[in-house]
Specification:
By secondary structure, the chain is mostly helical. The chain has helices spanning 3-19, 26-46, 49-66.
Length: 71
């Protein structure tokens, strides 16, 4: 699969996934978006299922922390 198809598919899935998130908080949306971006980045870096999963986990944690309320 070439990179254009991979990125196009990731954008389509992220758009469809986030369109159903109207009841989610800002932080939950950030977590999901971070996981999606991290999964794509992990897949691009080494191309395996393990790297994709690890990228999704790291991206989800980063997205969760970045969108945390500043109290």
């Amino acid at each position: 699969m070439d990179i254009f198809k991979l990125v196009s598919t990731a954008i389509l899935l992220a758009t469809l996934g986030l369109s159903g998130c109207s009841g989610m908080s800002h932080q939950e949306k950030g977590t999901v978006a971070g996981a999606a971006v991290g999964g794509v980045a992990g897949n691009l870096l080494c191309g395996g299922v393990l790297c994709t999963g690890a990228g999704a986990v790291v991206g989800g944690v980063i997205g969760h922390e970045v969108t945390k309320d500043k109290k």
